[in-house]
Write a structure and sequence with these properties.
The complex is a heterodimer of chains A (about 270) and B (about 290). With about 270 residues, chain A is α/β, with parallel strands linked by helices. Chain A contains nine helices and ten strands. In chain A, a hairpin with a 2-residue loop joins strand 4 and strand 5. The termini of chain A are far apart. In chain B, about 70% of the residues lie in helices and about 0% in strands. Chain B contains twelve helices and no strands. Classes of the chains: A alpha/beta (about 270), B mainly alpha (about 290). Chain A: Belongs to the ABC transporter superfamily. Chain A: GO terms for molecular function: ATP binding.
């Protein structure tokens, strides 16, 4: 069995003042090999916590993450990570950022160089290899982040709102790039996002999470990621089926947000 | 906009008499720090006024050489210092020895302080062990240590270098420690996910990330040490710019004292400019994370 299994994960943060926050409550998730799934939910639903647990940065209060029949106990290069922003090494050029993983692993320099050149081509940055990363735009930086992650050839790629800080247009282009990379590499990808459209477009499967306590509310099987490999993104996003699902999920999330707002008002009587 | 602006000439912009075209387009200038130009013309004016006041006062014979030398006397003394040196030591050697002491002290302070600061930022034990020492030593002005250091080492070269070592040590330690604290956790997480080991993360992520702050520490340490070395030489030395002006004072050579003070100011300024230049050269990514 490969892929990734989240087995009954619960996470309780105990704050320094003794208060407890139930970030995740009995989360079960089975991600198949080569699957791309998106995780969506209002802020505070624990989606980033879940990703950090899968990445091995946090130890869950109970439950475990299993990858290839082995329990995950810490970060590892089999699970690559793409962050929202600010995770590139600004003291390195684009090339050196991408070469970081292979270089740390002690791969031969020539092999690494070939790989870096190839990845620069794939993400469309072939003319920017020698540039320091801080001279690139936000979208280009995220392409570097993707390439850096792929250079290590991880089996699973964890994406924590990787396109969240980009403008709408760049974001759409990057979504297509993510799909293209998924198609070409067939990596297992778990994508956290707060954009309903992005979650629908990129996920073969969509997990909707709810807060207080953080839990999985609903799962959708979606055709759009597969269609995105052949059809144009604009066409898909305008299609009747896409719009309908989007509205359904939006009202689901709106309902949760209103519940939270309502609770807040009850907590603070005027 | 019907009003035409004739672009201001390059010279008047350089002098700060006119704002550049971009600033001229702003209607809000008071409170916008970037709209305040260099005012270079007025800087030149200040220098010219001060120098002419000195020149006129000298020409009119208004200066009592005991309190402040005339321009001529100063130039003559300068020539003499350059050709004959001061107290059998060449003028440049007086400057050179002071600069050497500063560089030596700062270098040693950095060699010990940077690893110490990194350790304090990375390990609870190191932080706990050294925190009382660092926090206790930090507010003590290095000059207050001079008597003790004279008792320990006498007044030879070791004493001065050790004093400057102490003066820079705690600055460098604190700079390196705060450099570690400023590392964004996402970068460290990213490096772990890319398979880096702890040692690799220290040298390839944490250290470069801390470099801007380490360099700021280095700049501060250079400034503090330059001030300290002059003061230390005032108290106990037979060579160096500080000792030069102190000995000159004993011989009532006010002109040498004034020249020494100007040299101290100029060198301090040069060190600061040099460090800023190095900073731009070595750490171009500063503030761009």
């Amino acid at each position: 069995m490969s892929g990734i299994v989240a087995d009954n994960i619960s996470m309780v943060f105990t704050l320094p003042n003794g208060d407890q926050v139930h970030a995740l409550n009995n989360v079960n998730l089975n991600v198949k090999d080569g699957e791309i799934i998106s995780v969506l939910g209002p802020s505070g639903c624990g989606k980033t916590t879940l990703l950090n647990i899968i990445a091995g940065f946090l130890r869950p209060t109970s439950g475990k993450i299993i990858r290839e029949n082995v329990e995950v106990t810490g970060p590892g290069s089999d699970r690559g990570m793409v962050f929202q922003q600010g995770a590139l090494f600004e003291w390195m050029t684009v090339e050196k950022n991408i070469a970081f993983g292979p270089k740390m692993a002690g791969r031969p320099a020539a092999e690494t160089k070939r790989k870096v050149d190839e990845l620069l081509q794939i993400v469309g940055l072939q003319d920017f290899g020698k540039k320091p990363v801080y001279q690139l735009s936000g979208g280009m930086q995220q392409r570097v982040a993707l390439a850096r992650c792929l250079a290590n050839d991880p089996e699973v790629i964890l994406m924590d709102e990787p396109l969240g800080a980009l403008d709408a247009l760049t974001r759409e282009k990057m979504q297509s790039l993510v799909l293209k990379l998924w198609k070409e590499t067939r990596k297992t990808i778990i994508l956290i996002t707060h954009s309903v459209e992005e979650a629908l477009f990129l996920g073969e499967r969509l997990i909707v999470m709810a807060p207080r306590p953080g839990r999985i509310l609903r799962e959708y099987e979606l055709p759009f990621a597969d269609r995105g490999l052949v059809e144009s993104p604009r066409q898909i996003k305008a299609s009747h089926e896409f719009v309908e699902t989007r509205e359904e999920i939006l009202s689901l999330i709106w309902g949760m947000e209103e519940e939270i707002m309502g609770n807040d008002q009850e907590l603070e009587p005027a | 906009m019907s009003k035409h602006h004739t672009p201001p000439s390059g010279v008047s912009v350089w002098l700060g008499l006119k704002d550049n075209v971009f600033t001229q387009q702003k209607t809000v200038r008071f409170g916008d720090a970037s709209a305040v130009n260099s005012g270079r013309f007025y800087s030149i004016l200040t220098v010219v006024i001060l120098l002419s006041a000195w020149g006129i006062a000298s020409a009119l014979g208004m200066l009592e050489s005991f309190y402040w030398p005339s321009v001529n006397a100063t130039l003559t003394r300068m020539g003499k210092l350059l050709s004959e040196g001061f107290r059998n030591v060449a003028f440049w050697d007086h400057i050179g020895i002071s600069v050497f002491r500063v560089l030596g002290g700062v270098l040693l302070g950095a060699l010990v302080g940077i690893p110490l600061g990194l350790a304090m930022g990375l390990s609870s034990i190191a932080r706990g062990l050294f925190d009382p020492i660092v926090e206790f030593m930090r507010p003590i002005p290095p000059l207050a240590l001079i008597p003790l250091i004279i008792l320990w080492f006498g007044i030879d070269e070791t004493a001065k270098i050790f004093l400057l070592f102490l003066a820079s040590l705690f600055i460098m330690t604190i700079a390196a420690r705060s450099g570690v604290n400023s590392v964004k956790i996402t970068k460290v997480h990213a490096a772990y996910s890319l398979g880096a080991s702890r040692t690799q993360i220290l040298f390839h992520v944490i250290l470069p990330n801390a470099l801007p702050e380490i360099f700021t520490g280095l700049r501060t340490a250079m400034g503090v040490c330059w001030g300290t070395v002059v003061a230390a030489e005032l108290v106990a030395a037979d060579k160096g710019v500080g000792s030069m002006i102190m000995i000159a004072k004993n011989f009532l050579q006010t002109d040498t004292v004034v020249i020494g003070i100007m040299v101290i100011g100029l060198i301090g300024y040069t060190i600061e400019l040099g460090m800023r230049y190095l900073e731009r050269l070595l750490i171009p990514w500063q503030g761009k994370g």
